[in-house]
Amino acid sequence: MFGLMVRFTCKDEEAAAEFDELVAHTGEQIKAHEPGTLIYTVHRVEGRPLERIFYELYRDREAFDVHESQNHVREFLKARGKYLSSTEVDVLDFMSGKGVDA
Fold first, then answer.
1. pLDDT at 54
2. Three-class SS of residue 42?
3. Which parts of the chain span the membrane according to its record (predicted)?
4. Where are the alpha helices (DSSP H) in 1-102?
5. What angle do CA 16, 3, 47 make, to 5 degrees?
6. 3-state class (DSSP) for residue 78
7. How open is the CA angle 22-20-16, to the nearest 5 degrees?
C-alpha cells in the first residue's frame, strides 16, 4: 500500500468554502473512476477552521500514479493554489492496521 497525509491551510474563510466545493467535486470523480484509490478522506481540523487534512491510501504506488494522471486530479492540483496559504505532504510507509485489504 502507498499513502499520504496532506495538510492544507486555506487563506481565509471564503477561500476555505470555495476549496471545500472543489474538494467535493474532485472526491466524487475519485469515487467513480479510481478503483486503486482505497481511501480518500478529507477532514476539518477542530479549532482550526482554515485547515483541512487529507488521508489517502492507494493499493500501491502504481495506483497513486494513476490517480495523479487523472484529469480531475490535474484540475484540482491546478486550481487549489488560489485558495491555499500552505500545503504540507507526508508520504506514509504502511506498517499495520485494520480497515482495508490490499
1. 98
2. strand
3. none
4. 13-33, 61-69, 71-79
5. 35
6. helix
7. 115
Question: What are 57's three cell numbers?
Answer: 491510501
For residue 17, name the pLDDT band (cuts at 50, 70, 90).
Answer: very high
- Kindly state the cell numbers that stand for 48: 482550526
Using alpha carbons only, how large is the chain's radius of gyration in Å?
Answer: 14
Length of the chain: 102
User: Nearest to residue 50, comparing CAs of 75, 27, 18?
Assistant: 18
> Is the pLDDT assigned to residue 26 strictly greater than 90?
yes
The grid cell for 17 is: 468554502
Q: What is the pLDDT of residues 43-101, one digit of tens each?
A: 999 999 999 999 999 999 999 999 999 999 999 999 999 999 999 999 999 888 887 66
* Phi (first) and psi of residue 85, to 5 degrees: -100, -20
